[in-house]
Amino acid sequence: MAPERIVIVGAGQAGGRAAEALRNTGFKGEVLLLGEEAHEPYERPALSKGVLLGEEPAARTLIHPRAWYAAQKIDLRTGTRVEAIAPVSQTVLTAQGERIEYSRLLLCTGSRVRPLVGANEALRGVHYLRTIGDSERLSAELRPGRRIVIIGGGFIGLEVASSAARRGLSVRVVERQGALLDRALPAEIAAHVESLHRSQGVQLHLGVSVARIHGSEAVQGVELADGTNLEADLVVVGIGIIPNTELAEAAGAVSSDGIVVDEYCRTSVANIYAAGDATNHYNLLLDRRIRLESWQNAQNQAVAAARNMSGNAKPYAEIPWFWSDQLGRNIQMVGMAEPGLEIIWRGEPGAGRCMAFGLREGRVRLAVAFDLGGEIRHARRLIESQAPVTERRLTDLQSKLKDLVPDKAARPLAA
Amino acid sequence: MSWHEVPEAQALGEEEAIGVVVGGQQIALCRSGGTVHAIGGVCTHQHALLSEGYVEDGCIECPLHQGRFDLKTGAPLGPPVTEGVRVYRMRSENGKSYVELPD
Predict the structure, then answer these.
(1) pLDDT over threshold 70, residue A285
(2) pLDDT at residue A399, as a whole number
(3) CATH number of A5-112+242-309
(4) Chain B residue nearest residue A49, CA to CA
(5) Matching CATH topology for A126-239 and A328-404?
(6) Which CATH architecture has domain B2-91?
(7) Which positions in chain A touch B53 (Cβ < 8 Å)?
(8) Mean pLDDT of A126-139
């Protein structure tokens, strides 16, 4: 009998962590890790923070050096794009024309940047941010005194704004919605992120969309829908990502805002699993389907998929957790924003170290920590336990958050 | 190697951590299971002070990305951390605590 072979398509953070986890769980068969990019698997968070600030070399984002893969008997093939999957013969076809058989297949195809419709991307000075190459190119352009217009007031846009402001550029952010971080945070909490940016000189244009980007060879400015013209030497478009589902769909896998997987990371096609940004998974803790664009999910869902593929079945369910670093502040959130949450602050809102809680029917659904990352674990347990809390106890700085968690036994399902 | 007094260790509660700078070294003092451990204070993944993290069951969790380290050995306990932190010897004498550092 031929040895078992697990093929992983996509050598980003999810693919890399899955390969690692296969070996950690004792999988003895062949592991092939196929990636389109030239780099070994890397983490993306620093690309909009440390790398863009010029403080952290891009090589620091690599999960492991190349030699590690060989030592682990992981056949890492970068520069290898998979064009198609034949689910009946259990084969993938690469762009180079090679056919590779698999016993089980893991799709970690990730996501790509959402293009701005009508934007002339051929103009010099127009950037998107997704890869190491994108980050290094943009970083080289962040020179003091230049004017940068960032389209999109989500986490990527605001982190780019932060990095650019710290490097001495004149920074404007244009956001179509009336508030920053509209998808991620309740407006009352996002307002404090807005104040932070305004206080550091970032100019915000909220509730207005972009009409067009001006320029002939190089970008000259951004025209807003209200007729305002913003002069610019650089434009960064950060308006979200699109999950890469096409390969899975062509193989017959069900997809709906991401490749649909169950809590065991299985797609609708036999022996094909998926993990990371590209997926839409059923989450037991939230009792609903979600698609996440996060470091946590890229890592932990991939580890869970690897475990499940090597015969150690355990459902994947975590309370979503996310962090951002902006203008010297660390912002962490756990849980999910939903309409109608009652917002309660612990500590003075927006000033120094503080937390905001989003409650529904007296139970915590969302927590946001400003420079208080150490409290996130307790907040997560509060959310997991769904224990009733009172405003008086949440706001009482004399009592520890830790003591509001009913029982230490209320551990995360998967940690 | 030489011993340096760390008075901060005395008042440390169970499952608490505090960051100290001794002899130019950033160190995290952590009490778990009644014992105070001294480990390198900066996470090996990205720059964060471990003393602001979370101590439990003989481990410390980084506040930034939740990487975990064993307090006794400094060993990393899974992704995202792959590299351990340094561990320093501690001793108590006449009600005072000391950490051992290279000269």
Answers:
(1) yes
(2) 87
(3) 3.50.50.60
(4) B46
(5) no
(6) 3-layer Sandwich (2.102)
(7) 373-374
(8) 96
B79 and A17 in contact by Cβ < 8 A? yes
Give pLDDT, residue A414.
Answer: 39
Res A1: pLDDT = 59
- CA-nearest residue to B44 within chain A is A60
Please tell me if residue B64 touches chain A, with a CB cutoff of 8 Å. yes
Q: What is the per-residue pLDDT across A21-31, written as a single tens digit (0 to 9) for each?
A: 999 999 999 99
Per domain, the residue ranges of chain A are: 5-112+242-309, 126-239, 328-404
Work out the burial of residue A46: count CB atoms within 10 Å of its CB; fewer than 13 is exposed, 13-18 middle, 19 or more buried: buried
pTM for the structure as a whole? 0.90
What pLDDT, on the 0 to 100 scale, is given for residue A351? 74
> Would you list the domain boundaries of chain B?
2-91
Confidence grade of residue A192 (pLDDT, cut at 50, 70, 90): very high
CB contact under 8 A, A376 and B46: no
Name residue, tokens 């190119």: A137
pLDDT digits (tens, 9 = 90+) for A318-334: 999 999 999 999 999 99
Provide the token pair at A177: 């919605």
Cross-strand partners of A214? A221
Interchain contact, A50 vs B46, CB within 8 Å:
yes
Looking at domain A328-404, its CATH class is: alpha beta
Cβ contact, residue pair A374, B82, below 8 Å: no
Superfamily of domain A126-239: FAD/NAD(P)-binding domain (3.50.50.60)
